[in-house]
Amino acid sequence: MASRPTSEPSPPTLPLEHLAELSSAAGEDRALLALRNQARESLTPLLLPDRARHLWRYTDPTRFLPDTDPTDLTPTDVGPTWRLEEPLSVAGLLAGGALRVVEVDAHARKAGVVVEDLHTAQASEFLGKAVSESHGFVEAINTAAWRGGVLVRVPAGIELEHPIRLRIVAGPLTVPRVLVVAGEGSSFEIIEGHVGGDGSRGKVLGVTEIFAESRANVRYGLVQRWDPGVVGHLTTRARVAAGARFQMSLASFGGSTFKADVGAILAGEGAEVETTGVAMGGDEQHFDHHTEHIHEAGKTLSNLDFKVALTHAARSAYTGMIRIARHAGGSEAYQENRNLLLSHDARAESIPELEILTDDVRCSHGATVAPIDPEQLFYLQSRGLANLQAMRVIVYGFLDQTLARLPQTTRERIEALVAARLHTE
Amino acid sequence: MASTPKVADIGTDYGQRYGFHDPEEYFMRTPKGLSHEVVEAISRLKKEPEWMREFRHKALDIFLAKPMPTWGDTQMLSEIDFDDITYYVRATEKQETSWEDVPENVKRTFDRLGIPEAERKFLAGVSAQYESEVVYHSVKEELTKQGVIFLDMDSGLREHEELVRKHFATVIPIADNKFAALNSAVWSGGSFIYVPKNTEVAIPLQAYFRINAERMGQFERTLIIADEGAKVHYIEGCTAPVYSTNSLHSAVVELIAMKGARIRYTTIQNWSNNIYNLVTKRAVAWEDAVVEWVDGNLGSKLTMKYPAVILKGERAHGEVLSIAFAGPGQHQDAGAKMTHLAPNTTSKITSKSISKGTGRATYRGLVKVRKGASGCKTSVQCDALLIGEAARTDTYPTMEIAEDQVRVEHEARVSKLGDEQLFYLRSRGLKDDQARLMIVNGFIEPFVKELPMEYAVELNRLIELEMEGSVG
Amino acid sequence: MSDSSQPVFSCKDVHVWIADKEVVKGVDLEISAGEIHAIMGPNGSGKSTLANALMGHPAYTLEGTVKLAGEDVTSLSPDEKARKGMFLAFQYPVAVPGVTVASFLRAAVSAVRGTETPVREFRKELLSRMEDLAMDPAFAGRYLNDGFSGGEKKRLEILQLLMLKPRFALLDETDSGLDIDALKVVAEGINAAASQDVGMVLVTHYQRLLNYVRPHVVHVFMDGRIVRTGGPELALELEERGYDWLEPAAAGGV
């Protein structure tokens, strides 16, 4: 019921002094500089979100304000080298504010897969079209000051056997930008992995835009395993065209404060989106996940399954929006969020929301928050499992159905991370 | 009835059945608009104790200082013109205990609404409020003998000042929200009920609220105290004439269920669709107490109402069972709030809504479990039925859980009135509108079966009116 | 009950489309009062589509002529058809939660008979019919098909058949999902209706029901058409030999 003023009394200012230098040093064209300037305009004055509105109810937006000027070009450490251990179609490393390693395997190269430095790529047709500067202040900061970006473009009709893997290494202040364009009927898996954290002091403000053109089949994974102490905000939006299928896998493990705003716009008839997520928090980690499935076209289908397991004094807030627009009849949308509290001090919030503007739909959502079932625990213990072991088994069980929905390679990777996490508890 | 505007959107004969109005020949009314003078006039007229007078003035300052809510239907809210409303209107000189003594025009209104008849048949006590004041009040003698107090709020304050002062605004403080502050400043009428220890009021008490004047605000204030082990069921109904101008209804209802007490509060809200219905309802449930809000919203232009239970004592139980019917142009923004402060408390929210035409039904809810309230269980179930491609439904549930030893469940489903159901019923000879009505009645059956029989019949009839002309 | 000079039901050159797909490709039928026809055919042959389309399901487009006791009812709505004495027993009756069997049936009986049956009289009739079908009286207070087992749903369909007393009934796979006792009860209901001059079409792909209900005419339905018509012996032949041997005939008919 509290009604607060919609902005701070004296808005903090954000230094973006070297925007033009950043742009010219990176060799950008005028159009891109114009986009950056436009975003900078939208930040003056810097209006922080109204915290009475629930999207920012659980996380203090000022945590994501950069401590230094993000356009400051002081070179930063690029982090450890990356050893590739699996067959990949593409490997891209964003570190120290630049695209560093790009490996494209022979098949992908022959197929015409493009992996380019986003600063110099010709991408104005797409950049800012799925996440604009008006999305929010974090996205506006990113649009104005992103540094280190990659464009991945898979031509129409191309199927990639091996995944595309992008690794983004967090430095003191990291503002990465990813743009993925999946041509008509293309099919591939792409994983965006976030690691590092500058000895736990890092801050990350990332934006990813994905365009799945008609009948494309994109399996996207967003895996966050920052060092402890990293504060980060990642925004991903996919625009899914007619007949295209977009599968998104979220896995959140690291950082101290992490807010994710991920979603898809089902823009063409027959588009399908499936979002599957797991978050595992411990210590005093603070997770805030927001998902959105926006059905703009008819006969579209979306499904979401998001699971959260928390130990110690971890906190999680989940807000999920399903919106079915006025002329999107014949659509179906389902959403499920389950939270498992493994300790007395863990805390979870869940707000699954529906906005349905037409009648020819089928929608449902469900959410639960519950502790480990003592009956399950007792049963397993009576079969000889120690308390911690039994809890692990239960957590595996809790996550298993969700993990089973993931594409194979992502699944293996996330399962390994889950296992690692459980065994360090 | 010649001047009655088009009312097809709220049941085709709302105008005839409820939407009529009497001439506004009133005993007294304050000038339009809101000011300390108006507040002073109301308080003086009621010959209130000093503390209440101060309470009102303080509340007005808070109302004026608070911004309008930034959530909910801000568009519709912004259309309220607080200066164009009369905040106090008194139709009759005094309150009567016999219908014979109620002035003819007012009595006629309640006759048409069937209140005296209902009283004869199945009520333990009736309070009838017309504009700002209760014009008729009567309680069965047995209840008075048992020590049950059932009065209008003004009489309650006069006759039981200490009891009122002890509990008034303890559940909903003045500054709770802008509209609670408004009510606190200009409240008039409503019910005051006290049920002594271990006393059971077996048949319901009823209050009926009627707004007759144009551009008028009704701000009743209700306080119900069920002492340890007591049990009471209170029912309220409301209607108003159909005007093209808007009126405001902003009630504050506080319930206190002491240890082991049980309160059921049933509302059939059927305001005409020019009424803003912005109501704050909240209960406190102590150890082993049960509070149930049974809340039906059919009328009004915009309703914003989220009945709440604060579960303060161990094993207390709170329940909200609600239906909302949003016809064309209406927005029913309703929901529930449950705050679990004590261990082993339980709550259940069941919300059913129907959106028809351009109607919009919103479920907005909050379930909160405080640290230390272990062993709590809470479940929320929302079902929305949509009729027509311009219909809208929203579900905004919030769950804030600060305790691990709890079970919290939320489920929501949205569906269209089913083609297969329709075909099945029609293949059995039911006409299209008959089949639709049957499906809708089935949909709200879990709510209807909680109502006393007479109300169930009335509600089914109201739904029938709402469903008229829903074909295609 | 009906004019014996003309069939209680007939349809001529009926084609049915689901969206752009033609599922029923020209069907003629003629059923007299008290006569039982069986339409047998493999799964997916379009039998259920035909039954639903004849009743006027909005998802199907029907072309051709449908007559009830000589009156053209092709373009009537399902409720109009029901009021003129047509009945469809559904293969998958849908649940309507919150509506009791008794209140639904009373509304349906009133609609079809065109008069309100007094509550007491209706109740007596309902309980008596339920007894005939070995149904627990508590059934009347349950929500329509809500949480019913397959057998309960089918019994309720037959109960409706007996209560609504149509001139003509289409029974769509009424025998599927029934145990032997339920099957006998259902068969008795069908025979009782037939003895009261109801014309009937049993749509089925098993011979099972036909052990208890003796059809006068058996039609074999494949790929949207009636490919063969014969007496009750045809059903036995199908039971023995399956449908495969008829394929060439079907193909030949194109």
Characterize the structure shown.
- The complex is a heterotrimer of chains A (425), B (472) and C (254).
- Mean pLDDT of chain A is 90; it is low at 1-9.
- Chain A has one domain (19-373).
- In chain A, helix 6 (387-403) packs antiparallel against helix 7.
- Chain A has helices at 19-25, 30-42, 106-111, 137-145, 374-382, 387-403, 408-424; strands at 90-95, 98-104, 114-117, 149-154, 164-170, 173-174, 177-182, 187-196, 203-212, 217-224, 231-240, 245-252, 257-266, 272-281, 286-295, 301-310, 315-324, 331-341, 347-356, 361-371.
- Chain A has 425 residues and is of the alpha/beta class.
- Chain A contains 7 helices and 20 strands.
- In chain A, strand 1 (90-95) and strand 2 form a beta hairpin.
- In chain B, the strands form 3 sheets. In chain B, strands 5, 6, 8, 9, 11, 12, 14, 16, 17, 19, 21 and 23 form a 12-stranded mixed β-sheet that branches. In chain B, strands 4-3-7-10-13-15-18-20-22-24 form a 10-stranded mixed β-sheet.
- In chain B, 60% of the residues are buried.
- Chain B has 2 domains: 8-305, no CATH class; 424-472, no CATH class.
- Chain B is globular.
- In chain B, helix 8 packs across helix 9 (161-167).
- Helices cover 25% and strands 35% of the residues of chain B.
- Chain B has helices at residues 14-17, 36-45, 50-65, 74-78, 104-112, 115-122, 141-145, 153-159, 161-167, 178-186, 419-426, 432-448, 453-467, and strands spanning 28-29, 89-90, 125-130, 133-139, 149-152, 191-195, 205-210, 217-218, 221-226, 231-239, 247-249, 252-257, 262-269, 275-285, 290-297, 302-305, 308-311, 317-326, 331-340, 346-356, 360-369, 376-387, 392-401, 406-416.
- Chain C has a domain at 9-91 and 166-253: Rossmann fold (3-Layer(aba) Sandwich), CATH 3.40.50.300.
- In chain C, the strands form 3 sheets. Chain C has a 6-stranded mixed β-sheet with strand order 6-9-10-3-11-12, sandwiched between helices.
- In chain C, strand 1 and strand 2 form a beta hairpin.
- Strand 19 of chain A pairs antiparallel with strand 23 of chain B.
